[in-house]
Amino acid sequence: MKIAIIASEFGDAGKAAKTLKSRYRAVSVRDADIIVALGGDGFMLQTLHAYMNLEKPIFGMNKGTVGFLMNEFSDDDLMERIKKADHFALHPLKMRVTRCDGEIVEHLAINEISLLRETRQASSIKIAIDGKIYMTEQVGDGLLVATPAGSTAYNLSAHGPIIPLGAELLALTPLSPFRPRRWKGALLPRHVTVELTINNPNKRPVSATADMHEVRDVRKVVIEEDRSVNINLLFDAEHTLAERIFTEQFAY
Question: Which are the contacts of 115, defined by CB distance < 8 A and separation ≥ 6?
Answer without folding.
Answer: 123, 125, 142, 143, 144, 196, 198, 206, 207, 208, 209, 218, 221
